[in-house]
Specification:
By secondary structure, the protein is an alpha/beta fold. The protein has helices at about 35-40, 105-115, 125-135, 145-150, 165-175, 200, 210-215, 230-255, and strands at about 1-10, 25-30, 50-55, 55-60, 70-75, 100, 120, 140, 155-160, 195, 215-220, 225. The strands form three sheets. A five-stranded mixed beta sheet has the order 2-1-5-3-4, with helices on one face. A four-stranded parallel beta sheet has the order 7-6-8-9, sandwiched between helices. A three-stranded antiparallel beta sheet has the order 10-11-12. α5 packs across α8. The longest helix has 24 residues, at about 230-255.
Length: about 260
């Protein structure tokens, strides 16, 4: 039997058992598996990995692990410049769009609230989520590590928290979303971009109190749901503000 020495850095340690976090450890294996296969066998899905060094040299996911090799595995570096080193992560998508698994409905609503294109369907199958991610160029967001290990998935994110507001803060930090947010421009129900509509065109559908107090409205062109600046918007603003505070706190902690 052969063996190699591994160390996982940064957020990739979240995928390891506690005894292997922040330390170098030996991993035994048979034959000559690819470094991608061993990394995923150890727990980390490939879309979360940005750089792999083997004996100090950058390698791709197909590199066959050698007996006695020393392997360092890194997550995304963000703003840190690592020079001409070859990364294994797929190139960034030209447009940041998401598809979320069926357990993340509240997060999908929050992303839409912040103005981001977020597909979500209750009960969606893993194969359909992976297919949509690849076909439409969307980041697959999930709490299911196994889903991110599907071979066809190139862009994905495992959210650590189980709290939707903290999950939103994670995505804002991970994909630098703060600068491109456009709150209240998407339908929370069906994800379509909202359109401004004259009050006279929707007056018959408004509750009397809303008709009396408000003059500006938007409407979803898909489901025709009507939006206005009421108490529901105030609650959404508080949610977005809470996510922003969590994101700022995380930046201060990591600085």
């Amino acid at each position: 039997m052969r063996s190699a020495v591994f160390r996982f850095y940064g957020e990739l340690r979240d995928f390891l058992p506690p005894r292997r976090r922040g330390v170098t450890f030996e991993q035994q294996f048979f034959g000559a598996p690819s470094v991608k296969d061993l990394i995923e066998a150890l727990g980390a899905p490939h879309p979360e990995v940005d750089l792999v060094l083997a004996d100090g040299e950058a390698v791709d996911f197909g590199w066959a692990v050698r007996d006695g090799a020393r392997v360092a595995v890194f997550p995304a570096f963000g703003a840190i410049d690592v020079g001409p080193v070859s990364r294994v992560r797929a190139p960034p998508l030209r447009e940041v769009r998401f598809v979320l698994d069926g357990h993340l409905g509240r997060l999908a609503r929050y992303l839409r609230m912040a103005g981001f294109d977020a597909l979500w369907e209750r009960g969606a199958r893993d194969e359909d989520l992976a297919r949509t991610s690849v076909r439409d160029g969307r980041i697959l967001v999930t709490r299911d590590v196994g889903l991110l290990k599907r071979r066809e998935v190139t862009h994905g994110c495992w959210v650590r928290s189980t709290d939707p507001t903290r999950q939103l803060a994670e995505l804002v930090r991970r994909f630098d979303l703060a600068r491109s947010a456009g709150p209240f421009r998407r339908c929370l129900r069906c994800n379509a971009l909202l359109e401004r509509v004259a009050k006279v065109d929707v007056a018959a559908r408004l509750p009397p109190r809303v008709r009396e107090r408000h003059d500006e409205f938007t409407r979803c062109p898909s489901c025709e749901r009507i939006y206005w600046s009421g108490t529901h918007r105030q609650r959404m603003e508080r949610t977005l503000a809470a996510a922003a505070r969590l994101n700022s706190a995380a930046h201060r902690t990591s600085a």
